[in-house]
Amino acid sequence: MADAGTLRSATALEDADRRKAWGFVAPALLWTLAFFVVPFAFMAAMSLWKREGRDLVRIWNFDNYVRFFSENALFQGLVNSLEITVIVTVISVLLAYPLAWIIAERVPKRLQRLALILAILPFWTSYVVRSYSWLLVLSKNGVINQMFMSIGLISEPLELASTRTATVIGFVHFFVMLLTLTIYSNLIQLSPNYRRAAADLGANAFQTFWHVVLPLTLPGIMTGAFLTFVLCIGDYVTPQILGGNNELVLPQIIMLQLGRRADFPMAAALSIVLMLAVTFAYVACARWLKIERA
Amino acid sequence: MMQSVRDGARLRRFFSSTAAIAIAALSTAAAPAPAFAQEELNALVWCDHTDPVLLEPFEKANDVKVNVKVYEGTGAGLSILDQSQPGDWDVLVIDGVDVHRAIDLDLLAEMPADGLPTADIFPEVRMEANNTKDGKIYAVTEKFGYNTISYDKTKVDPKDMQDLSIIWSDKYKGRIALYDYYLPMIGLVGLGLGKKTAELSEADMPAIKEKLAAMRAVSKQVSDVVSSQTALATGEVDILVGGGEWITAVLSADKPSLDWTIPEQGAVRWAQSIGVMKDSTKQDLALKFVQYILSPEGQARLATSSCYWAMPANARADEHLTDQQKAALRFDQQAEYLKKTQLYPIPSAELDQQFQDAWTEMLQQ
What we know:
The structure holds 2 protein chains of 2 kinds. By secondary structure, chain A is mainly alpha-helical. Chain A has helices at residues 2-46, 63-70, 72-106, 109-119, 127-138, 143-150, 164-187, 192-200, 205-233, 237-242, 250-259, 264-293; strands at residues 50-52, 55-57.
């Protein structure tokens, strides 16, 4: 009898906990449902419609997807997006890791906050203004070309603006800051005992970094890398301003569908493709992280 | 125990203050509008209509607040209207070649012919075929300009700019920017091929694609207005195909070496129109705003508004422009320019898609 009573009160407590948990989760859940799931479902349905002339044909078909995979100019947009995103992510990680490490390990504790503020200072300016500023810096008469020419490194200005290189530079400038933050937050949580233990076992500095520090900071790297991937592959502004339209990335092609012809079904199909690319990246990162943690 | 009491007190304070704020907000919302509330007019416009110098005289004269929302591209504008409630918008500014898209969607109201200064509009830009239907006026041209060739006269030979074939010639390879809007650009290619913009058809697509590819091969970049201006101003490029007074006039004070011309083969003319929304609940006020914009004073202010300069459609606007402004707009040469230019192509929806696809292919080449 007493056992049954204890069981009932335990179940009642569990129910109360469950209700409380739902209470906490419900606002975020409703928000996501209203502003992500429902619009996404509508967008997915719209991607199966078709614009014919000025009319919207509301009969489900895969014509937009067939067009995307069969027309090279459209498919190339995805290829360009993936290439640029991978390049940007790799370069950003390679630059951000040493910076985060120096701030976490070499800068005195009292100055670390200041160092971080300095590192993220460019975040304080508008994204668009920063992109146009890079356009001026990279132009024929810009700072870089003038400096190289004045020291005799080059005789003719380099073609930097309106190229993929310019797009990558603009992106990397932005994402190094983001990655520095995620990696730094991981590095400062790392107990010095790990390195001491490695040293006790005879590991040199490189071995300690490679076998101990790097694997333990992978979650920070992967979180930052995934955020970089998501933000980079969906960005329209930087390639539009710095790339000079010399190659189109997927978001630019999406905008092209909307500007004059208002071809929302085609734009929706391209957006679904973009989301699938992000989903694949997430699955890849999540699985990989899980293995590392195990 | 004491902690939970304190927490409870905090919660009560939070809820009571939140409730007070909510009640205050509801009371404010439910209260009748104060006597000094201004009337408002909502206009869906291009960026040149956002200049306070343009809007303030109308707002003061009519004790009204003009709310403007800027859009780019007719497709984007029509989408905004599609997502709005009837009556949300009172005035629409739209690409002159797309007025019939809005008329066909039953968006625009008929305007009284005797209330509009159509007689003062340059005859070539009245565009009755575009702005009217079945003899009824739905929009009026308010501003126009040219998609032609802008260049730095200290860097290129101005004589070369008189021949449209320069846009696909090797002579200035890597020093050319192309304006990123396929309609006028394909119109220019058509002119270069000796075709009238109004007569471009599917049969012309192979030749157009070939010339687009040739243009792309000799160009440095394809860019929007700001990037094109930046490229010309910084010397990144020396020629902008598709540019015109609307690109160089704003820069004329700082960069007097920038010039523009209309080649022998001609150039493309763009025009923007203004109309009253059919579902507007303020038809009279909206018409008054259209009349103000089309008046000589409104036209002078619109022509020189901060976003971009271009020719006023009303020929009497010169009464309100300074000599310097008229010189930058080349007001006195309009008779010659209007003769040499043709309106944007107005493709059918199917041809429009072919134009866009050809442009996308060119960009990815």
